[in-house]
Amino acid sequence: MTDDRGPAVQQFYPDDVAHCYGCGRLNPQGLRIETRWDGEETVARFVPRPEHTALPGFVYGGLIASLIDCHAMGTAAAAAERARGRAIGDGPAPRFVTASLRVDYLAPTPHGPELEVRARAVEVGERKVLVRATVAAAGVVTARGEVVAVRMPASMDRAPRP
Amino acid sequence: MTDDRGPAVQQFYPDDVAHCYGCGRLNPQGLRIETRWDGEETVARFVPRPEHTALPGFVYGGLIASLIDCHAMGTAAAAAERARGRAIGDGPAPRFVTASLRVDYLAPTPHGPELEVRARAVEVGERKVLVRATVAAAGVVTARGEVVAVRMPASMDRAPRP
């Protein structure tokens, strides 16, 4: 049994940086990806919309890249907090952005089942976190990702932080 | 001056594989990315929708990955045809799928201007094409991509080919 129904990182992004198309809780058109701890890993679950097709019957690769990307940013935030002894929800979550994203598509991803995205922060620095992720459909891993997350630079920050 | 208003590769994907969320002309909710030759390069242009935000004011990285992904598949198809002495529109375009995708985000991409995605097929094999791409906003390159495209495997092909 997994215990992955705790709070999601994205619920604790400050309001002014919670509009991401992939994972912002304040983006009504977005995907609303949510990242939760499950032991030493994180997990996100997502059911592709009917229009998220690549070839008929298979999930669009750009969606898979998006799931990996946003879940990796959430994982970086959760891992950075855990490294400081803090749990999700102990305060505002730190906001990371993507420096690089690599996705290997191992097999076509069937369209229909809920996708399970799992990730681990394999290197956690003060400014940079390296995340590895998998995407699985019906228990079969169909894609792997490696993502470099960096703290949101001041140049992207349009609001004063408390 | 560039001359990039010729036919788009995606107009010539066979109907039964023209539903891709990123570039399928038969996906009404999709992004409808279009790939055209511009000399030795290919180009695609796209104006992000209002909801395609990362942090406010900047374009969602998953969208940038999607633009690079689909434009690279279109570039692979166009390059494979050109290697056989054929132009876009001389017949149905061959369908490639993504084996791997790497995106380096060099700078935040401002939300507002039309994005210009440029690509080159740097290795064109019978089964595999390596594509390098850039994304620029207002003339500034903000992301680079490297994509391995492979011919659609028979396992993804649900219709008999003529």
Helix/strand/pairing category of chain A = alpha+beta
Shape of chain A: globular
**Multimer state:** homodimer
Number of helices of chain A: 1
Distance between the termini of chain A: 39 Å
The number of E-state strands of chain A comes to: 6
Which strand-content bin applies to the residues of chain A?
Answer: 25-35%
Radius of gyration of chain A: 15 Å
Largest beta-sheet details of chain A: 6 strands, antiparallel
Query: How much is the average pLDDT of chain A?
Result: 94
Unreliable stretches of chain A (pLDDT < 50, length at least 5) are none
Q: Give the % helix of chain A.
A: 10-25%
For the largest interface, the chains and their residue counts are:
A-B, 45 and 45 residues
Spell out the helices and strands of chain A N to C.
EEHEEEE
Explain what the structure shows.
The structure is a homodimer of 162-residue chains. Chain A has 162 residues and is an alpha+beta fold. In chain A, 14% of the residues lie in helices and 31% in strands. The first copy, chain A, has one helix spanning 61-83; strands at residues 36-38, 41-46, 96-105, 115-124, 128-137, 140-151. In chain A, strands 1-2-4-5-6-3 form a 6-stranded antiparallel sheet, covered by helices on one side. In chain A, strand 4 and strand 5 form a beta hairpin. Chain A is globular. The mean pLDDT of chain A is 94. At the A-B interface, helix 1 and strand 3 of A face helix 1 and strand 3 of B.
